[in-house]
Every structure is written in C-alpha cells, then in structure tokens.
C-alpha cells in the first residue's frame, strides 16, 4: 500500500486533502515537528513552493504531478541541455505506522530492503532555504530519516496531505540554538 501511495498522487482519483501552512518561509533555516497518528491511513508530510502547492490543489493531480514531464513534441535537443531543477515539493510518506523511504537515497534503516522504517513518536522537518534542502528527522532521537533538495525560488510552505483519513498534531514551540523560543503561527523559525 505504501508503494502504491507514490502513484496515488498521479494516477488515482481518491479524495486528497491538502493542508498548507499559514507561514511562508523565504529565508534561513526553519524547523517544526509533528506527531502523526499511527492509525492514519496515509499521510504525506513535507514542504513545497507556495505557488506550486496552490496550483496542485486547484488542478487535477495528474497534470501537476512532480512525475509529469510533458514532451514538447519536437526533437530540438533543448530538453537535453536544461539542468535538472529540484522538485517544487518534497513529502515523506507515512502509513500504517511506518514511513516509506525513497529509493536511491542514503538513508539509515533497520529494514534490510531499505524500504520502510517504524513511525517515530514525532517527526521533525528542517528546511534550509538558502541551500534548497529539506531534512526529515526522528524528532525524539534526532536521527535523520531522509534528506532531499527542494525548489526554494519563492516562498516555501509546510504542507500536509491526507489520503483516506488521518490525524496529525503540530508541535508549536521549538527551541533554537540559543535556547530561545520563537514561534511564527503554528511553526517555529530558527535564526
């Protein structure tokens, strides 16, 4: 089911509820944590370009899928010369008390196949806007689960996607390196 979740975003007509954070990140490093109910059917936790998330929510999923790459229909070679840009959003897929890990990533896992890890009590998300990188952590042990690039050419928002029902609780206060607590809406920003 978790493997099929990656295709749900592009090929299935299930009800998908997308929640976009009310705070757009435009600089620096930001960290927030959340608890996903282990009985949730399927939840995606991550970040994305504000403009692309809103576009994705308003247009059919198969049109704006990160896997959708329209061919221009001509063989000019122009497609071959472009540098591969980071995706406009990055999500960690969670379901049935487990986290699906992306193929080809350098993840630490007890699973010999490297496919899933147990869902920790809290998941931490750290966005480094200047580096265009998002990291997902076990927020209890601070063990990194997954790291990937994300397009930070505009405002980036935390986002949560619920497929088939689920529950998530955001942790509102997070301390930064100087042990000072700073909150922005429901999300904490580290200076």
From TrEMBL:
- Top-level taxon of origin: Eukaryota
- The record lists the organism as Regulus satrapa
The entry's protein name is TRI46 protein
Domain B30.2/SPRY span(s) in chain numbering: 1-179
What is a biological process (GO) this protein takes part in?
axonogenesis
Q: Which gene encodes it?
A: Trim46_1
For this record, an example GO cellular component is: axon cytoplasm
